[in-house]
From TrEMBL:
It comes from Shinella sedimenti. Keywords: Plasmid. This is Uncharacterized protein. It comes from the Bacteria. Residues 3-127 form the Predicted pPIWI-associating nuclease domain. InterPro entries: pP_pnuc_1, Put_pPIWI_pnuc_2. Residues 138-257 form the Predicted pPIWI-associating nuclease group domain. The lineage of its organism: Bacteria, Pseudomonadati, Pseudomonadota, Alphaproteobacteria, Hyphomicrobiales. Pfam families: pP_pnuc_1 (PF18165), pP_pnuc_2 (PF18166).
């Protein structure tokens, strides 16, 4: 793709009388490479939203753009929850590709040798691609935001419902007071799963001795906090529902022993 882009720039700046047409051909190849490499056939056709279009072989350009932006996320989720309009996002690039297609055919009436026209065509092509990249980043950010509450509740549920060795070994009775998420990332997305990694801090109460020991002033209760990490998954068809059996939480208690 880098080679094709360099070639497009070189021929576009040359004195070749059909430089615009050759540049358009290179830019068309570049956009094709991007769409096919980022949205391969087997990935696009595996999505629940994919439907074959009559008289076409494999995914359409719009379907490839859709996959690049939203992956296998359901269209209703993208439209109603994330508030993204894929048809509007893809339109500038798709229109530019149509112009590139027309410009690659060298006819007397289609010779493209005006430098400003060539520059606009290249700019529109690159901006169309950048719009898709920006939309993909926005989509992931919105998925990230929409999942935050679910991620928080899932981690809290794991702390409250599971006995974690790293906390249990710290006192006679260790209880979780709460936790906070320092950061979390979407580490992997394919046509089936979204995988997430979480890092945060868990707040605990460390009780030494029994309740009667505490009442008789023979025990102690201390508050402390420790960093934790967690991993979990959600299915792309239900992106706001974490799979509980996929949750793995680990607490770093090394500070307790230092």
């Amino acid at each position: 793709m880098k080679t094709v882009l360099e070639g497009a720039f070189l021929v576009g700046e040359s004195e070749n009388p059909i430089r615009g047409n050759l540049c358009a051909a290179a830019m068309r190849e570049l956009t094709g490479h991007v769409l096919h490499s980022m949205a391969p056939d087997q990935r696009v056709t595996a999505c629940s939203w994919f439907e074959p279009v009559k008289d076409t072989k494999g995914p359409t350009r719009l379907q490839r753009v859709t996959y690049i932006v939203q992956g296998a996320l359901p269209k209703d989720f993208v439209k109603n929850v994330l508030k993204l309009d894929l048809s509007k996002i893809a339109q500038p690039l798709l229109k530019t590709i149509e112009r590139l297609n027309r410009s690659t055919h060298v006819r007397e009436e289609t010779i493209l040798d005006d430098d400003e026209e060539i520059r606009v065509l290249v700019d529109d092509s690159l901006n169309g691609l950048l719009d898709i990249y920006d939309a993909a980043r926005t989509c992931r950010e919105e998925v990230h935001r929409s999942l935050r509450t679910e991620v928080f509740d899932t981690v809290l549920d794991a702390f409250l419902s599971e006995t974690l060795q790293e906390l249990d070994e710290l006192s006679t009775h260790t209880s979780v007071d709460g936790h906070e998420i320092d950061n979390y990332t979407i580490t992997f997305v394919n046509d089936e799963f979204i995988e997430l990694a979480v890092a945060g801090t868990v707040y605990v109460e460390l009780q030494y001795g029994s309740r009667s020991d505490i009442r008789n002033d023979m025990g102690a209760i201390l508050s402390d906090s420790y960093p934790y990490t967690a991993r979990m998954k959600a299915r792309v068809v239900e992106p706001q529902r974490i799979l509980r059996d996929s949750v793995v939480v680990s607490v770093d208690n090394r500070a307790f022993y230092e």
